[in-house]
């Protein structure tokens, strides 16, 4: 089974509604991870998601940086391994 870590979704009825999601399985989230999620997609998504497991450490400075870059950090309920 392939590892899918990048997702791009577009609404069929309204093509301007676009969502990108980046899945990261790291111990500590960094600003480089946020940059990758923020700058990877050239189609101007309305919402950018960075999905991480519960055990990932996120510092306050990375949270603020994600807010500046308009990236929403989403924690999963269960860890994936």
Count of helices? 2
Estimate the helix proportion, in percent. Answer: 10-25%
Order of helices and strands: EEHEHE
Shape: globular
How much of the sequence is in beta strands? 25-35%
Counting helices, strands and paired strands, the structural category is alpha/beta
Give the distance, in angstroms, between the N- and C-terminal Cα atoms: 14 Å
Largest sheet: 4 strands, mixed
- Radius of gyration equals 13 Å
Total number of β-strand segments?
4
Q: Give the mean pLDDT.
A: 85
Largest beta sheet: what is the strand line-up?
1-2-3-4
Unreliable runs: none
Overall tally of domains: 1
Would you give an account of this structure?
The chain is α/β, with parallel strands linked by helices. It has one domain (6-75). Helices cover 22% and strands 27% of the residues. It contains two helices and four strands. The chain has helices spanning 31-39, 60-68; strands at residues 6-10, 18-23, 47-52, 71-75. A four-stranded mixed beta sheet has the order 1-2-3-4. The longest helix is centred in the middle third of the chain and has 9 residues, at 31-39. It is globular.
Which key phrases capture this entry?
four-stranded mixed beta sheet; 27% strand; alpha/beta; single chain
Chain-wise SSE layout:
Blueprint (H helix, E strand, L loop, with lengths): L5 E5 L7 E6 L7 H9 L7 E6 L7 H9 L2 E5 L6
Parallel strand pairs: 2-3, 3-4
Antiparallel strand pairs: 1-2
